[in-house]
Amino acid sequence: MRHKDKLALLIILIFLTGCSRLETVQEVREEKLLLNKDKPVGQSFVAKNNSLNMIKVWVNNPNLSNNLPLVFHLKREGEKDDLVKIEFSGSNVGAFYWLPLKFPPIPDSAGETFYFFIEQLVASEREKSLEFSQSTEDVYMDGDAFLNHQPLKGDLTFRSYYWLPPQRFWLVSLQEFWQRFLSDLPFAIFYLSSILVLLVLIVKFSLR
């Protein structure tokens, strides 16, 4: 298969599959929360969109020493049963790493409060405990961090994502690009300059 055909196939696959889009970001990392047996780490949050389909949590696996069995749970607030349950291993967790936890889209998630937590099924030594991060203050107003299912003052460092079908994905992407282009002058200048340089290079190589 030629390179042009491969590129065309890749574009078609991306268009057909849609994409996960970022909706909530809590990036503050001020304190460590250590995961251990009987001390699960979690966070409550409100989904902004329908089709919630992924949570990412900032975590550190010290010296990549933790390879113990772990379970991710996602529930609606106040409900006993899991909406999502993912079993995995500490060996899947990197050092200073955004751990992705992906699941089938939840169609009616917009405006709903959810609670996720990660539990470790076997006790570990402190130096081998996974280290999660949290803020010391309540910087994310729509939820709280939890340790052993008890709320804390701060918020876990996490991101939530929702899935968009291909047509909506490209439409929303174009709308957001156009809004930024009109409101962010340095970005607009950089973008137009890049297009101009690209066109010059295309003309230059086509004349060879």
Structure, described:
By secondary structure, the chain is α+β, with helices and mostly antiparallel strands. The chain has 2 domains: 19-164, Jelly Rolls, CATH 2.60.120; 167-203, no CATH class. It is built from 3 helices and 12 strands; from the N terminus they run H-E-E-E-E-E-E-E-E-E-E-E-E-H-H. The chain has helices at residues 3-17, 166-183, 185-206; strands at residues 19-26, 31-34, 41-46, 52-60, 69-76, 84-89, 97-106, 113-120, 131-134, 145-147, 150-151, 158-164. Strands 1, 2, 4, 7, 9 and 12 form a 6-stranded antiparallel β-sheet that branches. The longest helix is centred in the last third of the chain and has 22 residues, at 185-206. The chain is elongated, with a radius of gyration of 21 Å.
Task: Give me some keywords for this one.
208 residues, alpha+beta, Jelly Rolls, six-stranded antiparallel sheet, 3 helices, elongated
In short:
Helices cover 26% and strands 36% of the residues. It is built from 3 helices and 12 strands. The chain has helices spanning 3-17, 166-183, 185-206; strands at residues 19-26, 31-34, 41-46, 52-60, 69-76, 84-89, 97-106, 113-120, 131-134, 145-147, 150-151, 158-164.
